[in-house]
Design brief:
Elements (H helix, E strand, L loop, with lengths): L1 E8 L4 H12 L4 E7 L4 E6 L6 H11 L3 E4 H11 L10
Helix pairs in contact: 1-2
């Protein structure tokens, strides 16, 4: 079992989150899907032997005009765009 976390942009109502959850729960290999309209995020538990993560992402995008990005990828982009601060102590 694997767990994937996604940032979903473009949801403007709770009904969008509900539609995504229903679509994912009907996919073979998806064990659990929780989509939050308020946070714009989704957590999907799935059997990696039955379905690929990219298929889940495409299915979310197909429900509406949503932009979907894996949260780890999104966090890495945010961190790389921030200036880094390093502190050195000389003795």
């Amino acid at each position: 079992m694997e767990k994937a976390k996604f940032k979903i942009k473009g949801m403007y109502r709770q009904s969008g989150a509900t539609l995504i959850e229903e679509k994912l729960k009907n996919l073979p290999g998806v064990i659990q899907a929780k989509i939050s309209y308020e946070s714009g995020k989704g957590v999907i538990v799935y059997d990696e032997n039955a379905i690929e993560e990219t298929k889940i992402q495409r299915e979310i995008e197909s429900v509406g005009e949503y932009s979907v990005e894996k949260i780890e990828d999104a966090e890495n982009k945010e961190n790389s765009s921030r200036p880094s601060l390093s502190i050195s102590i000389f003795l």
